Amino acid sequence: MPSSEPSTDVVVERTLIQSSATSTFPTISRTLADVREEVAQSLALRMITKARTVDGVRIGVHFTFSKKDDGRFLRLITSHIRARLPSSRYLFAIATTGSSPTGRDTRDRARTSNALVICGSDEDDVQRAVLLASSKFLGRVDAVQNTGTLLAASVRHIGSSYDDAALWDVLSKSVRTPIDPLLPPPGSRSIDQLLSDARSKLERMTPPQAYDALHDPTYPMPVFLVDIRPASQRAREGGIHGSLIIERNVLEWRFDPRCEARLAIADRYDLKIIIYCQEGYTSSLAAASLHELGLLNATDIVGGFAAWRAAGLPGQIKPPSTISDEESYQISQPSFDSDDVIDGI
């Protein structure tokens, strides 16, 4: 959940109380509108101060808690941003996260939408942001008002960590300077770099090492051999009976202990998951992905199935030590396919 400011209404109330408590001389009374103006100025200054710079453009995302969904207050903030950056290029997103609908008022309980405003100095930047944002909040946008350099929208349940990351991504991509399509964008990595980075996280195993670990009754954690190759490749090249057949497109769902679609055996984070593909490239990327889920013992076989076969190792292994012979789930059979269990993930 992104960090958010105290309720705008609370800030206003505090400001009014502090003003009356510290006044020792007769002054002109301040109205609620005056205080909201002051708070809007403060938030605008804070956003400008904390803004990031992408290709010379200031960008920022801010969530502010509000008891009532006040789109007009967000527009007030944008007017102060515009006043303070008259000649600068910028793009900001501001949203109210609102409060949980726990009040007695029926309208309060029914409200699920909050205000989102995207403002910028360049109309093209804002319109690019509009297009990108529409794909980030599919099915959640209730109303939109687009005036060129300002988008005001009503979005359901906004304020999660996903929304924060999504808005930063929208703003960053919207202000990027067009580049030569034949040149790699800044920050991108080649597949060789991705593979190298993935393997730096792994304790890769040779085929004999993997075979020994799979048959070592004293190994300190459960060990599983996983074949992630597609069915056509398994049919053409053969495989290792006793390995779990979990194709690459569902691997993370099957081994994440937090996922409802996980395998029954994926109920702990210390599993030794040894992945193999045909030659040991895709398997490295797959194992590194499992590390991201917290499965830090996941690894792969150097050279893949081709190296296993070249080493003259048996084409069959014992079932995993945690599964009895009677309850092997047919994991040694090529016909078992995790796609048959849950489809469409």
TrEMBL record:
It comes from the Eukaryota. Pfam families: Rhodanese. It comes from Suillus fuscotomentosus. PROSITE patterns: RHODANESE_3 (PS50206). Residues 223-317 form the Rhodanese domain. The lineage of its organism: Eukaryota, Fungi, Dikarya, Basidiomycota, Agaricomycotina. Gene3D superfamilies: Rhodanese-like domain. This is Rhodanese domain-containing protein. Signal peptide: none annotated.
